[in-house]
Design brief:
With 297 residues, this protein is an alpha/beta fold. It contains 10 helices and 14 strands. The chain has an 8-stranded mixed β-sheet, sandwiched between helices. It has a 4-stranded mixed β-sheet with strand order 3-2-7-8. Helix 8 packs antiparallel against helix 9. The chain binds adenosine-5'-diphosphate. Adenosine-5'-diphosphate (ADP) is lined by residues 184, 213-216, 218-219, 232-233, 235, 237, 240, 243-244, 247, 269, 272-273, 276.
Length: 297
């Protein structure tokens, strides 16, 4: 009953002693090739946690796309509406990992990077109670949010700092169509700066909430003048790629069962902490049982 709309990619992880300049060579080690993309990660997180999600994204008609669809379907994500673009390549990210675990990202965006507004046909919305969007571009995001509002579907949007800086003129209009806004601390500051004041829930749909993630420090929820802050779980993080996507997926999966917002924040912190324990955005996305064990111990 949750529809995720946005990006799907294939992440190629390479470990390197240092990043080479132009005309320099360096030997790297291939750490693996794994599906990623904010929207796909969130859909996998929800599905693993027992809330099967439908994903609307796009891939090229290449081997990478075929593999990504197979892996998503194997997890139980509804991939039936993912657009396969003839003659296009699947969106890839090359992720360079330093010996101490820092990362540099090279995005190879293609025309199969995102679904198009026209891909949101009425059948995609059938049976859907909640639409979760990772920002892609203003046309897609606004169209999707408007359709959700017309169909009485609740909405959430996960924004990153570059999204906010790329589309400042659309920000207020988008926020007015959103029930739950997810941001990390940097994105919260970027949005406040762009809006020329502190971002508040007044800008969202009535009853809207803002969830700010703060890495290892945990998260907070703003709801009108109400503030809840929940510390993160202490883990030996290996790779935080996708932690924010897992957090959003887990929070929504938990709220769908009408969990108290504080319980949902704790649940999402636990799921996202577990998601940092292995390389790759989707490799370590936990099952519900693993989250419940962490919460009990
Ligand atoms: P993003 O990856 O989008 O920048 P954050 O870094 O804020 O988002 O991480 C999202 C969530 O993942 C956090 O709110 C927290 O629950 C969890 N998380 C991230 N990094 C860690 C960490 N090192 N230890 C424990 N939990 C973490």
């Amino acid at each position: 009953d949750i529809l995720c709309i946005g990006d799907l990619d294939v992440d190629l992880f390479i470990s390197l002693p240092a990043i080479p300049g132009f005309d320099q060579k360096v030997s790297g080690k291939h750490l693996g090739q794994k599906p990623g993309g904010m929207s796909a990660n969130a859909a996998v997180a929800m599905t693993r946690l027992g809330r099967p999600a439908r994903l609307l994204a796009a891939v090229g008609d290449d081997h990478a796309g075929e593999e990504a669809l197979k892996q998503l379907a194997a997890v139980g994500v509804d991939t039936g509406f993912i657009a396969v673009r003839p003659g296009s390549k699947t969106f890839m990210c090359v992720i360079l990992v330093s010996p101490s675990g820092e990362k540099s990202l090279i995005r190879l965006e293609t025309d199969a990077y995102l679904p198009r507004p026209g891909d949101i046909i009425p059948a995609v919305l059938r049976g859907i109670k909640h639409m979760h969007l990772t920002y892609g571009n203003a046309a897609l995001t606004l169209h999707a949010l408007e359709m959700a509002n017309e169909h009485g579907i609740r909405t959430s949007l996960d924004l990153e700092p570059p999204d906010i800086r790329r589309a400042p003129e659309h920000l207020t209009r988008m926020l007015g169509l959103v029930d739950t806004l997810f941001l990390n601390s940097e994105a919260f500051d970027a949005a406040s700066e762009v809006l020329g004041g502190v971002l508040s829930t007044n800008l969202l749909r009535p009853g809207g909430e803002i969830i700010v993630t703060m890495g290892a420090a945990g998260c907070r929820r703003l709801f009108g003048n109400d503030l809840i802050e929940v510390p993160g779980f202490k883990v030996d993080a290996v790779d935080t790629t996708g932690a924010g996507d897992c957090f959003a997926g887990a929070y929504l999966a938990s709220r769908r069962t009408d969990a108290d917002p504080r319980d949902a924040l704790i649940f999402a912190n636990a799921a996202a902490a577990l998601a940092t324990l292995d390389f790759g955005a989707q490799a370590a996305l936990p099952e519900r049982g693993a989250v419940e064990t962490l919460l009990r111990d």
